Amino acid sequence: MKRRALLLAGLPVPAWAQAYAGPLFDAHLHYNDDAQAPHPPADVQARMVRAGVRGALVNSRPNDGTLRLVAEAGPQWVPFIRLYRNRADYTGWFADDSIRLMVLDLLKRGSPAGPFRGLGEFHLYDSANADGPTAVALMKLARERGLTVLAHVDDVAVDRLLGHAPGASLIWAHTGISGEPLPRVKELLAKHPGLRGELSYRPGITFDGKLSDDWRALMTQHPGRFLIGSDTWVTQRWQHYEGLFADYRGWLGQMPAEVAQRIAWSNAAELFALKAV
Predict the structure, then answer these.
(1) Strand pairing of 148-152 and 169-172?
(2) What is the percent of the chain with per-residue pLDDT over 70, rounded to a whole number?
């Protein structure tokens, strides 16, 4: 509507008004137990089609939701093992060996879409818990088996987790939901080559729909290190699925086309060996 108003008024349309129109990958999709009745797989896929999302990293609490969704043909699914059987696991998984055993069992069984490709999303509410025995064991397991980790943690925990398994692949959910300073983000990207930032809920990226200069510079400097996602962590979030990706398309279009395409699709395609679309 803003673009149309400018055209009708005879005013020049700024370059950043051109939305990105290519394929999208959702690098942070939850299909939790409470979402499945109101949003069965057909509804999820219809929303993805309308948004132009051609693939997704899927995880759920418990993992049954992931297994149900990725059994459906359509998008390119990338199944992850979530470390939560229930909400009680959020606060103690990092020291619970039964979580490690669950992961090993699910890795052995696989999913209807093929092998599991990663672990998470998981949370650490205290960065010191990155040193918990199960956290350390799972980071080492991920590196050994070529799995990617999706972690909702602060910058200190990112450093600790990757310190236990140098070279491991880790997606930093929200790239710091508390708004870690961009110099700190750059420092971690430089230190850990397997680190990528996922951008849902990240504060400061845009102001009134316009991409910030600092974020444009960071993503242009590191075009291979960022991903986008929906983070459907609560059922209500599904109601806004298409709008979330419309917002992404808006600010992706404010960057060089090759940078936008990498963040929207190609970074995930390379990481997870997706088919060309």
Answers:
(1) parallel
(2) 94
How far apart CA 138 and CA 147 sit, in angstroms, is 10
**SS3 letters for 114-179?**
ECCCEEEEEECCCHHHHHCHHHHHHHHHHHHHCCEEEEECCHHHHHHHHHHCCCCEEEEHHHCCCC
Over the stretch 151-193, which tens digit does the pLDDT of each residue have? 999 999 999 999 999 999 999 999 998 999 999 999 999 999 9
Question: Taking residues 66-88, what's their average pLDDT?
Answer: 97
Instruction: Say if residues 55 and 249 touch (Cβ distance below 8 Å).
Output: no
Closest by Cα among 211, 244, 194 to 29: 244
What totals of helices (H) and strands (E) does the chain contain, helices first?
A: 11, 10
Nearest by Cα to 146 from 184, 109, 113, 107? 107
Q: Is 54 helix (H, G, I), strand (E, B) or coil?
A: strand
Closest by Cα among 174, 224, 228 to 203? 174
H or E element at residue 79:
strand 76-81
* Residue 221 backbone class (left: φ over 0; alpha: ψ -120 to 50; beta: rest): alpha
DSSP 266: I
